[in-house]
Amino acid sequence: MDDDNDDEVRANDMARLTQLLQDRGIEAPEEFQALQQRYVDGEADLDEVGAALDALCDEEEHAESTTGSS
Asked: Which of 2, 44, 52, 57 is 20 to 30 A from 31 (CA-CA)?
């Protein structure tokens, strides 16, 4: 029941996620960043973040497939 610890864990999770995206060259749009903040604040759940992450990665893969060489 340590809400401060939960907040810290959620913040650390989102910081790692942001770093992973940056490592892959993916810049998260403002909407995704806002969702991450809502998750840290306890206003969104991990399922919402996961669904948004899936959509973001799908968009990135689509962009790569249309601009990459075959």
From this structure: 2
Give the pTM.
0.81
- From CA 56, how far away is CA 21, in angstroms rounded? 10
**Residue 44 CB contacts under 8 Å (≥ 6 apart), including other chains:** 35, 38
Q: Are 1 and 37 in contact (CB under 8 A)?
A: no
Q: What is residue 47's DSSP assignment?
A: H
Reported as a single tens digit per residue, the pLDDT across 44-64 is 999 999 999 999 988 888 887
DSSP 43: S
